[in-house]
Amino acid sequence: AGSGAGEDMRTEISTAAAFVTRLLRAAGGVGEEQLRCFRECLQEAMHEHYKHHWFPLVPSKGSGYRCIRINHKMDPLIGKAAGMIGLSHERLFQLLPSELTLWVDPFEVSYRIGEDGSICVLYESPQPGGKVAKQLESRTSCKEEWRIGRSSPSKSYNMMTVSS
Question: Where is the Anti-proliferative protein domain (predicted)?
């Protein structure tokens, strides 16, 4: 990855930031102007954070570092962006799922809500070099599950509730 590595991650980062912003919008109570600012701040924070941890030739390298996680602790990047629009961590926990994992990797952005939820792909682009076919086969089952789960409201909605 050369100096231009940062350019390549723009789509992945904007996809991930838009997703978190959509979750906030769906929860309600946050104004459009705040959401726009949140999204921009989150994109900036992610860009900064991932700058030297983006390896398009080895997409899985650094995946843990780029993983955005809410699990009874607020992800620092989301927390930072929320702070810029005056949202406290407590408020964020009310608005966002209590268990969220977002993987931002070169050529793929995916997420999981809940510890046992299906992994759903938000963005996917073929890797240069055509090695992509093998990796995708293992993932299709999840995507099928997601499509099926999408057509009928399922139990997955109760994962949004925060248990005390």
Answer: 96-115
Give the CA-trace dihedral at 7, 8, 13, 15, to 10 degrees. 120
Count up the domains in the chain and report the number.
1
Looking at per-residue pLDDT, the higher value among 110 and 158 belongs to 110
Residue 154 in domain: no
pLDDT at 126: 87
In whole angstroms, give the CA distance from residue 31 to residue 24: 10
Question: Which band of pLDDT confidence, cut at 50, 70 and 90, is reported for residue 7?
Answer: low
pLDDT digits (tens, 9 = 90+) for 105-125: 999 999 999 988 899 999 999
CATH at residue 68: 3.90.640.90
* Chain-centroid distance, C-alpha 4: 23
Give the residue ranges of DSSP H helices in the chain.
Answer: 5-8, 10-27, 32-50, 63-66, 76-84, 89-95, 132-151
In a domain, 55, yes or no: yes
Q: Which among 44, 51, 57, 63 has a CA at the least distance from the CA of 5? A: 51
Is residue 94 assigned to a domain?
A: yes
**C-alpha separations of 156 from 56, 69, 106 in Å:** 33, 18, 28
Percent of the chain with pLDDT over 90: 68
Q: Please give the model's pTM, rounded to 2 decimal places.
A: 0.75
SS3 69: strand
